[in-house]
Amino acid sequence: MSDQVNNPNPAYKEPEEKALPESNMQLTPKRSALVVVDPQNDFLDEKGVAWGVVGQSVKEHGVVRHLEDLLKAAKGVGMPVFISPHYYYPHDHTWHFEGALEKVMHSIGMFDRPGPLDVDGLEGSGADFVERFKPYINDGKTVVTSPHKVYGPEQNDLVLQLRKQRIDQVILAGMSANLCVESHMRALLEAGFEVAVVKDATAGAIIPEGDGYLAALVNFRMMANAVWDTNEAVLKIKALEVREKDSIRRSA
C-alpha cells in the first residue's frame, strides 16, 4: 500500500484572497473525538474494488499515512476514537431502487459481508479495516459503530455514541470525500456538533463525471467549523494533553 504524496493538483490550493472568515475552532479536553469513516480495504488498499477510481487521490493526499498519524495522535493523548464503517449484507442487495453510486457499489461487491452476525471471510477482505489501522481500532477502547448504509450516519448509532460520551467536537477523516465524509460532516453539523475536517486524510473518486475530492473540498471550506491538514490536526490533538494538565494544575 503506497504512502506516496504526489504534487497536489493546483485546483486544490487555498485561494490567495479568501472571502470566508477564518476558523476559531479550539479543541476542548474531554469534549472532542476523532471520527474516521470507512477506513476499509475496498477504498484504501491497492487490491480494493474501488482503487481504480480512488487510488490516484488516495496516493496524492497520502491518506493512509495521514489516517494512521491521526489515530496515533488521538490514542497518544487518550482522545476517544469512533469508527463509522460501511458494510453490505445479502439483504441490502435486494433493494428496489438505488442511486448511481449505490448501484456501482453493489455491482462490484464493495464492503460485502455474508451477514450482520457472520464474520466468515472478513479478515483481509475488502470490507475489513486496513491492517495497519487495526492496533488502534482493536485496542478495546475504540468505538466501532453499527454500519452506515448509504453515505451519512443517520441510520447508524454514531451520534448516540458521541452524545453518550458527552462529545460535541469532532475531528473528521476517512473515505470518501464527497460521499460518506461530506455526508457525515453535514449530519453532524445539523445535529449540533462542531466539526473540523482533515482535508488530506480523505480522498475522492476521479471519473469522467467529475473529481469527487474537489467537489467535497469546496463544501468543507463553506460548511465545516474548521478545515485542517493532518499536521495541524495532530498538533491540536497533542496540545489537548498540555491544556488538560494545565486545567488540573489550576484546579488543584
What does this structure look like?
It is globular, with a radius of gyration of 18 Å. The protein has nine helices and eight strands. Helix 3 (63-77) packs parallel to helix 9 (230-251) and helix 7 packs parallel to helix 8 (212-223). The protein has a single domain, classed as 3-Layer(aba) Sandwich (Rossmann fold), CATH 3.40.50.850. It has helices at 41-44, 51-60, 63-77, 100-107, 134-137, 158-164, 177-190, 212-223, 230-251, and strands at 32-37, 81-84, 143-144, 169-174, 194-198, 206-207, 210-211, 226-228. It is an alpha/beta fold and 252 residues long.
What is shown here, in short?
By secondary structure, the protein is α/β, with parallel strands linked by helices. The protein contains nine helices and eight strands. It is 38% helix and 12% strand.
As for the number of domains, it is: 1
What class would the helix/strand composition place it in? Answer: alpha/beta
Average pLDDT, all residues: 94
Oligomer: single chain
Query: How does CATH name the architecture?
Result: 3-Layer(aba) Sandwich
Tell me the strand order in the biggest sheet: 3-2-1-4-5-8
Cα separation of the termini = 48 Å
Unreliable stretches: none
Number of strands: 8
Series of H and E elements: EHHHEHHEHEHEEEHEH
- Fraction in beta strands: 5-15%
